[in-house]
Amino acid sequence: MNKPDESANQFFVIEQIEMSSESEPEDLEDLDDLNDIKHEEDNLNDLDKIINDVKKEDYIPKAQPNERVTKGPGWKDRLEVVDDFIRNFLIKNQMNRSLEVFQQEWYELSQKGKLATDGMGQVTDVYIQNEKLKEELKYVRGELDKAKIVAENAKSTYDKLRKERDFHKMHHHRVQQEKRKLNHDIDKLKGLHLQYETKYEELSQKYSHAMKEKMLLKLERDRLVAKNEALQRSLQNVEEKINKEKEPGSPTDKLPLVDTKANTKKASTKTNTAFPPDDRPNPYAGTQIEPQNYRNAILNKTFKGHMMAISSMDMHPKKSIVATASDDFTWKIWTLPQGELIMSGEGHKDWVSGIHFHPKGSHLVTSSGDCTIKVWDFINASCTHTFKDHIQPVWGVKFNDTGEFIVSASMDHTCKVFDLASGKTRHTFRGHVDSVNHVSFQPFSNIFTSASADKTISLWDIRSGLCVQTFYGHLNSVNHATFSLKGDSIASCDADGIIKMWDVRMVKGRSQFDAGPYSANAVALDKSGTILLVGSDDQQIRLYNETTQKQEHTLKGHEDAVQDVAFDYNSKMIISCGSDATFRIYQ
Prior knowledge:
Elements: H1 29-55, H2 82-92, H3 96-112, H4 126-245, H5 260-268, E1 299-304, E2 310-315, E3 321-326, E4 330-335, E5 341-346, E6 352-357, E7 363-368, E8 373-377, E9 382-387, E10 394-399, E11 405-410, E12 414-419, E13 424-430, E14 436-441, E15 447-452, E16 456-461, E17 466-472, E18 478-483, E19 489-494, E20 498-503, E21 508-514, E22 520-525, E23 531-536, E24 541-545, E25 550-555, E26 562-567, E27 574-578, E28 582-586
Antiparallel strand pairs: 1-28, 2-3, 3-4, 4-5, 6-7, 7-8, 8-9, 10-11, 11-12, 12-13, 14-15, 15-16, 16-17, 18-19, 19-20, 20-21, 22-23, 23-24, 24-25, 26-27, 27-28
Helix pairs in contact: 2-3
């Protein structure tokens, strides 16, 4: 709010004009007085007009503290003196006769020098001050009204904030009560958790004991069944021999004890293949192979092999050929290093998880998420066997060194050995308490290793169906395990990126490498057994030297996790495959 103009109602006076005249004779003094009165009346009338005109002015600028308002060029107003104040007062109250008498007497005294006008002080215009005070009072009242409005608003805001404070305070108390209640419930749950954990450990131990007893009972049953079959065959042979020795038509002739239907059924089925002997020699056992230098290996070629992730691959045992298995339900065979497609196979109803060449290179075995295992014949371009014994997805498969048996790893916590000649399951290996992720045969042996999500690695004998040894040391799921060519070492990797080398004879860990924190999905050993190749989820392939206990090289190129790695059959190339649906060659 702007303050009003303090000089809006001020009166203005014209600067006094001093009139001087020479001394005149005394006899003309009265006449001059009369003329002066008439002249002064005319001047007063003119002054009234000027004052009325000044009052009608719309705009009057604000005066300085010691000056009146200036009107027009050359005009300068100042505060009224005593005589001006009296004149203004008489004019304002229309006291014209008193004004005439005052003017006459004032000028007479002034002309005679009896009136000292210079020493008279100025008269403060009380009216102006009153008007100024009125305006200030009006302004202050307006400010007071505004302050009252602001105070009312502040009061309402304060009441609102106080209510919100009370609400939040009450809410805070409620939250504190709920917090105390939840803490109490958490303490109770912790106690129950400890009790349940103890119970769980007890039940786990009972379950493991029950599984072991069940496995032993099954093994005993299988042994007794095999013994019974052998006794039946022996009895049949004895009966046939007795019947041949006796004369025809003799009353002592007896029919064989074995059911003819059973004999017919046995005759129609294929016989089981005998397991290879344990004492067959390993040609690489006493040889010393110098490791290749892979420190300068770089990415050479990249091939888009499948439409989806490539989960596994295997190298041909005699040629530069690689087989790949993919999540697109297919497997393919490629030449190296040209990357030309030789053959592809379809038949699985879910992702293909594992693949392996026959030792002679004439067949191929694959495992899949559809719980089946299929054997493929390259010559006839057909599927020769389909095994459906697993009840959950199969993660991996391997041929033994003779190519007559296949071992599998499944999510159903078991490994199985299949006989290709009879098309039957010869043994089911139970002992792991979680998914079996990978299997691998010891070269020229009946022993195979299994890597499991229960953090253990086990050795199994396919002849007896028993667990030979178990390696403990990994702290997370073991994704892959493989033997060295000599068969005296095992390399394994887990989901924490830890790679371990195990001594089979001493049954203990020999060395350890850390490729974490990402999961290590696959590990491979060269022919010397000292260079480790590791593929990880961080899209990298690392090379470690067990002799120097150091990382020698890192290979990059994949755009997603590396799922499998391998050396070619003559150790000149490194091949890898990954979730980016490609397989790559490093040289």
